[in-house]
Amino acid sequence: MVKNAAESVQKRAGKVKERGIDKLQYGALLDDAYQKIKEMMYNNQLIPGQKIIYGDLADRLNTSITPIIQALKRLESSKIVRYFPNKGYVVTEITEAELRDLYEARESLELFILPRIIRNMSPDAIASVQDHFRKLDLSDPRKWVLHDEHFHLKIAEYARNEVIYHLLEEILERTYLRYKPQYLGEERLKEALREHREILQSIASGNVRKVRNVIRKHIYHQLDYTIHYMLK
């Protein structure tokens, strides 16, 4: 029955106009469901290994099952959830091998765009980023996850390359949507924030080699720390 429901989404989508919902409204419903499901994952309301019950999720998001299934299909394309016949969708567990691949891809992209970031980031822009990310509640590790993702994406904006920006966005989402709070401790949070400040200071110096070293150190500190706690 679950499989039939997923396969009938396309047919139901074609009928939405008859029910008084045009294509733009329907697209907005799908995107809203997609964003809200991701928000639940960031907040650990949906956790790795958890089976997703369509009806329960639809009730929680005040929507129908159709946009829920479409949103899950979209997340499946990024390997964040997986569909099992006769069972439905499950939030996937992130493995050490996948985590290493994601961090390696992230490093390659962030280092590649550094010269453009340094060229485009004015002192005022650096000060603006510093002010924006100055305050963070360390009592909630989930807030740091979002902070780290937004921090790196904000800097990536200054490369002015939309393709690379969206690739980096997907890599960070694939990493952090399934990131467990126990992977983070207060000492690591404080260290990571110091590294963020160091990244901005090195960008201000204009020294590409220095910035590369600082970012590489930050990425691998986080990778090593995460793997350490995964293997505990």
Provide key terms for this protein:
single chain, 232 residues, mainly alpha, Arc Repressor Mutant, subunit A, Four Helix Bundle (Hemerythrin (Met), subunit A), two-stranded antiparallel ribbon, 12 helices, 3% strand, globular
Q: Would you write up a description of this structure?
A:
Helices cover 69% and strands 3% of the residues. It has 232 residues and is mostly helical. The protein folds into two domains: 2-91, Arc Repressor Mutant, subunit A; 96-230, Up-down Bundle (Four Helix Bundle (Hemerythrin (Met), subunit A)). It has a two-stranded antiparallel sheet with strand order 1-2.
* Tally of DSSP β-strands: 2
Q: Which word captures the global form?
A: globular
Percent helix: 55-70%
Work out the helix count. 12
Separation, N- and C-terminal Cα atoms? 39 Å
Sketch the topology as an H/E string, one letter per element: HHHHHEEHHHHHHH
Strand content: under 5%
The figure for the number of domains is 2
**Radius of gyration over C-alpha positions, nearest whole angstrom:** 20 Å
Question: What does the main sheet amount to?
Answer: 2 strands, antiparallel
